[in-house]
Design brief:
With 370 residues, the chain is α/β, with parallel strands linked by helices. 34% of the residues lie in helices and 21% in strands. The strands form six sheets. The chain has a five-stranded mixed beta barrel. The protein has a three-stranded parallel sheet with strand order 3-6-9, with helices on one face. β16 and β17 form a beta hairpin. α11 packs parallel to α12. The chain starts with a helix and ends with a strand. The relative contact order is 0.09. About 4% of the residues have low confidence. The structure holds iron/sulfur cluster. The site of iron/sulfur cluster (SF4) has 9 residues, from α5.
Length: 370
């Protein structure tokens, strides 16, 4: 929660006009902390958001934004939300209690939106939901229709269909379920980006159990190996929580060991912080802030070494990038905002270019346009 409040504060100091929407909007903490926000709404309240936008901004005159509503991303990439809610009950999370059980959007509707975006010039679709691999579970993988073609409401079928649009397709928030293995060959064939964002959160069996997370570290390592065998180019990203209540030094070291073995390409790390209403708040053994910060530092230091080595291995290779702005692009290994970038001279936002890599640091690559 603090992270979101900080982000709101940052946005206010950047441009002074901020509308807050989402889970946090149902609490009055936003207004209390930042009384100058223009409006606060709960999740899914598109109408209230649009009302606030029209109240505070003149009607946009850009024919593109006029047609499809307010765009929150640059014109060349877009988030594609395929479902809402979640059937898991991770003890540190309150999303299911706020947004309810998983509700998958009909596959025809998702594909229609994806096609519209591709036609409007979007070059990269970022598939998101709370659990992308669970897509269709709630409707028992019901058969839907994509332009009259019967298609199951399922992650594999959705990826196949998205892979036909001729744009980059990047998958976020994927649980390592066995059926994810079926999607990896599509990555090897170049139909969807060889990139998987799988939030593992921890590796110690006891902590995972306390988190009410289904995965086990040994199985995960096996699965990663399988994915890399099928698609050697795959980029694997994950996020972890350190300092969960009761996490012992040795359990934290299990996590470090897992990271050393897993050699993930991209890693995000959060210090555990209690969220009002989360079951984990009742757990004994809360850790001191200094301990959490120190564990985060150690984890990131270890991962920095792994990331540097992995990026160094790309020197001398030519990588395709989607240019975000002059001099900055992203390869298949880089999701916007959360991963690194590729830097070079020149280029125009929204175009695909090839870059010969001649330098790397712990996060980014540097090279020359070809
Ligand atoms: S952390 Fe993700 S998977 Fe777990 S309950 Fe929350 S939304 Fe669902």
């Amino acid at each position: 929660m603090q992270e979101s409040l900080d982000a709101i504060g940052e946005a206010l100091s950047e441009n002074g006009k901020v509308i807050v929407t989402g889970c946090l909007g149902v609490k009055d903490v936003v207004r209390k902390t930042h009384p100058s926000v223009l409006a606060v709404t709960g999740p899914h309240d598109t109408l209230a958001v649009m009302k606030a936008v029209h109240e505070h901004l003149p009607k946009p005159r850009d024919p593109y934004t006029d047609l499809i509503g307010v765009k929150l991303t640059p014109p060349h990439y877009a988030y594609l939300k395929i479902a809402e809610g979640c059937n898991h009950r991770c003890s540190f999370c309150i999303i299911p209690s706020m947004r309810g059980e998983l509700v998958s959007r009909p596959i025809g509707e998702v594909m229609q939106e994806a096609e519209n975006l591709a036609k409007a010039g979007v070059r990269e679709l970022l598939v998101i939901s709370q659990d992308t691999s669970a897509y269709g579970v709630d409707v028992k993988y019901r058969t839907g229709f994509i332009q009259g073609r019967p298609t199951k409401t399922r992650m594999l079928e959705l990826c196949r269909a998205l892979g036909e649009l001729g744009v980059w397709v990047r998958l976020h928030y994927v649980y390592p379920y066995p059926h994810v293995d079926e999607v990896v060959p599509l990555m090897a064939e170049g139909r969807v980006l060889p990139y998987l964002d799988v939030p593992f959160q921890h590796a110690s069996p006891r902590i995972l159990k306390l988190m009410r997370r289904p995965a086990s570290a040994a199985k995960v390592l096996q699965r990663l190996q399988g994915w890399r065998k099928t698609c050697p180019e795959i980029t694997l990203r994950s996020t972890f929580i350190v300092g969960f209540p009761g996490e012992t030094e040795s359990e934290f070291e299990d996590l470090l060991e897992f990271l050393e073995e897993a050699r993930l390409d991209r890693v995000g790390c959060f210090e555990y912080s209690p969220v009002e209403g989360a079951a984990a708040n009742e757990l004994p053994g809360a850790l001191a802030d200094e301990v959490k910060a120190e564990r985060k530092r150690r984890l990131m230091l270890l991962q920095q070494g792994i990331s540097s080595e992995k990026l160094k291995a790309k020197i001398g290779r030519t990588v395709r990038v989607l240019v975000d702005a002059r001099g900055v692009g992203r390869s298949s290994a880089d999701a916007p905002e959360i991963d690194g970038v590729v830097r070079f001279m020149g280029g125009k936002a929204g175009e695909f270019r090839d870059v010969l890599i001649d330098r790397a640091d712990a996060h980014d690559l540097f090279g020359r346009l070809q």
